[in-house]
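[recover] target loaded
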């Protein structure tokens, strides 16, 4: 497999091989970071940090998981570090997003009507508010599964949990989000 060759060469210091890996995964890493931090500039910073850390740590990559799972774990940790730093800097325990950096405002819409656009933005805003109300643990699991589309095993590898624990936490996270949306009047069974 070509990727395995790139990984081996990059681990030996071949920058050209590492560039292939970056090209292959940069969008996935960026979008995963964007979903977790909610700000394009922060997501770009996190992405850069992730690939810098990956380059430095690649010689120690043990291949117990896939390269993409390893990158997701690095991204997840970098996002958590950034959110913690922001929380300390702001002195804000709620981790609310800055005005104007709403994920709903950043996502492209495939030519819906004005009414459909407004409805979609309202749904997205409600979902973001619901995600913001969840614990970091629940938000991370939901983003990894529902938005990044990772398998239970991949999530387990990233978070250092068993697949069974991932499933139970994901069920609790979905329930917490549904309860929030129901209470806010934005969800009906």
């Amino acid at each position: 497999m070509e990727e395995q060759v790139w990984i081996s060469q990059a681990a030996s210091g071949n920058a050209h091989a590492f560039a292939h890996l970056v090209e292959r995964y940069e969008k996935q890493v960026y979008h995963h970071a964007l979903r977790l931090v909610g700000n394009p500039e922060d997501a770009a910073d996190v992405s850069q940090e992730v690939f810098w850390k990956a380059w430095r740590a690649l010689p120690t990559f043990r291949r117990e998981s896939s390269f993409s799972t390893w990158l997701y774990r690095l991204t997840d940790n970098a996002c958590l570090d950034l959110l913690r730093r922001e929380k300390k800097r702001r002195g804000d325990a709620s981790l609310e997003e800055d005005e104007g950096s709403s994920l709903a405002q950043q996502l492209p819409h495939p030519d819906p009507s004005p009414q459909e656009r407004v409805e979609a933005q309202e749904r997205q805003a409600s979902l973001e508010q619901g995600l913001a109300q969840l614990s970091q643990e629940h938000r991370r699991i939901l983003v990894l599964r529902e938005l990044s589309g990772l398998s239970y095993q991949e999530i387990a590898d990233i978070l250092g949990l068993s697949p069974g624990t991932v499933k139970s936490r994901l069920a609790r996270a979905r329930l917490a989000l549904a309860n929030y949306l129901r209470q806010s009047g934005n969800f009906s069974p």
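[recover] notes: The chain has a mean pLDDT of 80.
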